Amino acid sequence: MSGVNIQGLSIRFGHNEVIKNLDLQVHEGEFLVLLGPSGCGKSTLLHSIAGLIDVSGGSIHIGGQDMTDAEPSERGIGMVFQSYALYPTMTVERNMSFGPRVAGVPKAEIARRVNRAAEMLQLTPLLNRKPAQLSGGQRQRVAIGRALVREAGVFLFDEPLSNLDAKLRAELRRELKLLHQTLGNTMVYVTHDQVEAMTLASRIVVMKGGVIQQIGTPSDVYEQPANLFVAGFLGSPAINLVPAKVGADGVSLEGVLPLRLAAGRVKPGQHVVLGVRPEHVRLQADGRWRATVQLVEPMGNHQVIWMTLGEQGFSVLVHDGRRIAAGDVLAFDIDESLLSVFDAASEQRLS
């Protein structure tokens, strides 16, 4: 088991700086998820840890050793890619054992590793099949198993579930989390899917434009987003972002939602943005605010209510079975203790 320490990392492709002076500490045994939109640099960062991309500056230490310029085979990592990349003419057993066989590992040791990985991933009955005889989920399990038999200190996952349907993704998410609990190895996982990030991660690294926006536990980044980008990227339905202006007394907000904020949190005349999670809105007959329902989305165990609040769109999560229809006028209150407040100019959270 190894940790990863990245200091001052920069990566350029021509004149395009993809990673910008990045520092990151991946602790031993944690499940770290790199989360962000396409093009934010998360896969590039993962590939640099694996040694698949040359860095322009900075250093990468794995298990306390400087691996900045080391070959991928020397880094003690196991990697799972988005594509399965299985050899079609080889059986499951041969695909999983290919790396150790090339490395000259004794046959008995290879058999032990393959059998152990196959048992953990429910692949034992499939060891003699070829990839064409497997489902997509089974092929991805084989790809994961191929990484496991390396018995590496660090496992890297580059969006391994993105090619699977929703049901298979949910199943493999659970299996990956159980696998991490069983092995205890350091795992770094890249995804643009916030559900994967929230369910798998010990800590989440939110990235944008090659720069880390926030690092924290899933609850930290969801409940206390560091800026407007993090707030808007995490959450489904997305957080309600309401522009407002601080009133003359420094604590009341003029505009659509007249709220009271703690003194010292904002300044008179300051333009701010209020972040209201849909689940923090309470529909109740004596609520202080009213809005007109525009759309209702039934989701089985809950409903998403889309409303118009002045000219502002506003969503509410409702978990009871009440009947709500477009055109209804609903009264509601907001749990102000759970509000996020951002400075409109800097877009940073106001603590």
Automatic annotation (TrEMBL):
Pfam name, any one: ABC_tran
Residues of the ABC transporter domain: 4-234
GO molecular function, one term: ATP binding
Entry keyword set: ATP-binding, Cell membrane, Membrane, Nucleotide-binding, Sugar transport, Transport
InterPro entries registered for this protein in UniProt: AAA+_ATPase, ABC_transporter-like_ATP-bd, ABC_transporter-like_CS, ABC_transpr_MalK-like, ABC_transpr_MalK/UgpC-like, Mo/tungstate-bd_C_term_dom, NA-bd_OB-fold, OB_MalK-like
CDD domains: ABC_MalK_N (cd03301)
Keyword Electron transport carried by entry: no
Keyword ATP-binding found: yes
NCBIfam families to which the protein is assigned, alphabetical: PRK11650.1
PANTHER family listed in its UniProt record: MALTODEXTRIN IMPORT ATP-BINDING PROTEIN MSMX, OSMOPROTECTIVE COMPOUNDS UPTAKE ATP-BINDING PROTEIN GGTA
Protein name: Multiple sugar transport system ATP-binding protein
Species of provenance: Pelomonas aquatica
Lineage, opening ranks: Bacteria, Pseudomonadati, Pseudomonadota, Betaproteobacteria, Burkholderiales
